[in-house]
Amino acid sequence: xxxxxSSTVEFVDREEADQRIPEVPRLEIDELIDQFLDRAHELKRxxxxxxxLLRSIQAVTGDLSLERVxxxxxxxACELVGAQYGALGVIGHDRGLEQFIYVGVDGQTAKxxxxxxxxxxxxxxxxxxxxxxxxxxxxxxxxxxxxxxGHPDMDSFLGVPVRVxxxxxxxxxxxxxxxxxxxADDEELVVALALAAGTAISNARLYREAELRQRWLEAxxxxxxQLLSTSGEDPLRTIARKSIVIADADLVTVGLLTPARDEFVxxxxxxxxxxxxxxxxxxxxxxxxxxxxxxxxxxxxxxIGDPDFPGSHVASVIxxxxxxxxxxxxxxxxxxxxxxxxxxxxxxxxxxxxxxxxVFASHASVALELxxxxxxxxxxxxxxxxxxxxxxxxxxxxxxxxxxxxxxxGAAGQLHSHPELAQRLHSxxxxxxxxxxxxxxxxxxxxxxxxxxREGLRQSILEVVSDVTPALGFxxxxxxxxxxDLEFDESLTADVIATVRETLTNVAKHAHATSVKxxxxxxxxxxxINVVDNGVGIDNPGRASGIANLSARAHNHRGSFVVxxxxxxxxVASWKVMTR
Length: 580
Known about the structure:
Shape: rod-shaped
Largest sheet: 6 strands, antiparallel
CATH superfamily of the largest domain: GAF domain
Strand content: 15-25%
Strand order of the largest sheet: 8-7-6-11-10-9
Structural class: alpha+beta
Order of helices and strands: HHHEEHHEEEHHEEEHEEEHHHEHEEHEE
CATH topology of the largest domain: Beta-Lactamase
Number of helices: 13
Number of strands: 16
Radius of gyration: 46 Å
CATH architecture of the largest domain: 2-Layer Sandwich
CATH class of the largest domain: Alpha Beta
């Protein structure tokens, strides 16, 4: 103001200022400043923990190897909240712990502890109810079951589920906080890390499945190439050999069903103690193999030996855990099974591994069908070759023998002054006739089903001889003569078959013979069957009921049956009937 000294103005300003600023005690201002600084420190620490969380997430998500991702999750969680011990338990198909990745416990301590946890107590509580658990003292919780001998002391505990999409993949376990107990902030940080870990696990699993599919597809291409080849390794063996490597299995077998379909034989096996299974027979009833064969669908299980699961042949050589069994299909029904097994305690097979193994099983099915086709082709080639040989024998060899026989008979007829020499020549002609009959029998055996139908009398007799051969211990010498391939009355055919079977069976039971000749001949509607053995003979032919039956059969066709001693020892059984 004009005319007012400056000192007066300054005094007025101070007075007005004193009136505007309230009087506050200095102690209260210091407290406010301290609170502000504490909040600033908390914000700074929170920012630091956020940065630690981000670094942990980066460490967890920066790899595509599932094994390394799981370990980094545990390591990052321990560093994030200052835990002395940490572990990640992967939940298996049986709701137990399939894998247990731990940090903070050295190898010697782990060895002294023994088997890894099975998922009981607090660990099992998180499996049955996947919600975070935070404890100041584990021993205070009723769900705690204590620790095995040699286990390190653990007090504070924090457990958080790890989810992959909507599936609980496993649980993250932390123990012994450096601060004495885990805080609510620690819990929130670990929950956030578990969410990021779920994404990392999902990516690693997808990458692993992609790699796995690639390996299966490469192996499938190799198998397909082998299927098209007629040389080299058996495709079934290739399939078994590739399966054990790609599926990371401990034992793989390929088994084929027996004709009765109640057993199977292990054709190929690779892995632990595989040699003990090859060429072994195993029953199907009550086993996984029966389920696969009857149902025609793949079967996967977690642990063999559980009461809920049937047994498996691989359990006879190893302690089996996860297992896949797949049917090997034929055109109409399963032909065998492919079994891929891991030992107990190992990781279960994934759905991808099951589907890709099923593709391999389809290759095995194709291999079996191709093998059948090739075998049929080889059989046809063999039969055609036999038919060619039979034609040559019939058209050339037999005709030449006939010509030689006629020449000898002509020469014998001119030797009136040398009757002994003529008789010897006639004997040689008879030898040629017998040789021709044997050649004709061989021609028929060579042609087999190519030449005539299975209903022919000749074929029926050969089948009976083949059936009785094991009982005899040797193959009888069979010869045929005459038009035996004509169509005969069914009752006559049945009696002929019964006669040959009965006489050969009697030889096998009583004669103690080392050779038998069966001569079958038709001459002017008369059929003769002579069975000659070199055995001990028969004491009283009239007392044998079998002989009486054969006599009755011969009588029904206006014939006879006679049993007599053979000239050189043994027995001659002669059955003669009329065909018309």
